[in-house]
Amino acid sequence: MSPLLIRLLLQKKNGIPILCEFFSNSLAQRLEKEGKLADLIIGNNVYAHVPDINDFTAGLKSALKPGGTITLEFPHLMRLIEYTQFDTVYHEHFSYLSLSSVNRIFKDAGLLIYDVEELPTHGGSLRIYGCHAEKTRLINNAVPEMLTEERAGGMNRLETYQTFQPRADRVKDDLLLFLIDQKRKGKKVAGYGAAAKGCTLLNYAGIKTDLLPYVCDASSSKYGKYLPGSHIPIFHPGEIRERMPDIVLILPWNIQAEVKEQMNYIREWGGMFALAVPSISVL
């Protein structure tokens, strides 16, 4: 079930009532009339997926008790820009959010962000804490500090975004040149991780099986299938031990430490790992 869904019927699962309906301000107002207000509203990796973020945020206010707290997690736009993480831009995301933008959306909805944390997930995320703007609440120093850091990082300047496309092109071009160079040297290359970000990267670069013959993944539901667009086949990770590639290109760079630990056996035959984002690197 999509994290965006709360869907139409009340049902019991593990003793927890679940309302299956798209969350909106109208739904929140209905819950408010029914006396179903929340002390705590949690939305982890939901906020960036919302088609109408202003209506959704108004719903958060409507559904929150006077002394309640909202906590949301979402990938941090500043880290996306900083590390050229264009491969995280795909159809599931409607928004790419900075603290500055969310702070403005919350203010317009009558909400206050009183704390923020940086998280390592998804290449750098934020967890924000919010409440009703009418409540007197001490704002943690982390909030103005992050807003200042974002301004210094150019999050409020148009040119920051205008220079992002050439940087994405550099990642694409460098990856193509790297794979072509490996092919000319007679090196064997495998991919690891049939993830959405990998599909975005490979399709943007136009990479097919001539440069990346296959990708391995830990999810058994993907075996025997193909990456969309590139039509690169997906195999069990055991294929890497069988074929002994010289290079394993890690596509989901956010779990590179885990992949390197699990597949460290490639060192036995002199194999190496490679990353394409934020720049080509051989590990």
Number of domains: 2
Largest beta sheet: what is the strand line-up?
Answer: 9-8-7-10-11-12
Provide the gyration radius in Å: 22 Å
- N- and C-termini, Cα separation: 37 Å
Helix content: 25-40%
**CATH C-level class of the largest domain:** Alpha Beta
Count of β-strands: 12
Order of H and E elements: EEHEHEHHEEHHHEHEEHEHEE
Characterize the biggest β-sheet.
6 strands, mixed
CATH superfamily of the largest domain: Vaccinia Virus protein VP39
Structural class: alpha/beta
Helices, by number, come to: 10
- Please mark out the parts with pLDDT under 50 across 5 or more consecutive residues, or reply none: 1-11
Overall shape: it is elongated
- How is the CATH topology of the largest domain named? Rossmann fold
Strand content: 15-25%
Second rung of CATH, namely the architecture of the largest domain: 3-Layer(aba) Sandwich
The whole-number mean of residue pLDDT values reads 92
Overview of this structure, please?
There is one protein chain. This protein has about 280 residues and is of the alpha/beta class. The chain folds into two domains: about 150 residues, 3-Layer(aba) Sandwich (Rossmann fold); about 120 residues, Rossmann fold (3-Layer(aba) Sandwich), CATH 3.40.50. It contains ten helices and twelve strands. The strands form three sheets. A six-stranded mixed beta sheet has the order 9-8-7-10-11-12. A four-stranded mixed beta sheet has the order 3-4-6-5. Strand 5 and strand 6 form a beta hairpin. Helix 1 runs parallel beside helix 2. The longest helix is centred in the middle third of the chain and has 21 residues.
